Amino acid sequence: MRHWLPLLLLALIMLVGVGCGQSVNTDEPPKIVYGQDVCDRCTMIISEEKYAAAYWTETGEARRFDDIGGMLAHITTESEEVASYWVHDFETAEWLRAEEATYVTDGDLITPMGFGIVAFADEELAQAMANNNEIVMIHSFADLLTMNITMPGDHTHDSEEMEHMD
Fold first, then answer.
1. Closest CA to 105 of 136, 132, 127
2. The model's pTM
3. What order do you get walking across the sheet with 95-97 strand by strand?
């Protein structure tokens, strides 16, 4: 019986650890394994760090994206309570809280899914990029959330838009 006691204790500890569940820290970005993890929107492999984005749901589930625009399109179509949003700085590839970044939209910029949205920690760098091209626009994350961004080629329309198409 003495030989079984340590095994029984180990099994009990493992069971309690699994049963309690492990909470995630939504104040840290979700981990992305580049070249392996797939985008929650388009299911393509996430390979370019400087374009990747992610968020945590209130229930502690990570959502990962290969393009900031893909994350925004996902938010538009999915009704999930979000705990925190994350993007990468276009220059350094460092994670940033999405609300703290300045965004540049450029239709000529080639991003993984073609949205042409990049984030900058430094607003001056974003402005410098905008000054070099008159079609580039500067946005806050709050601005982007109100834009109702959809996937390129997505022809989803609300009823008012459909009426104007007749």
1. 136
2. 0.76
3. 62-65, 53-57, 82-88, 95-97
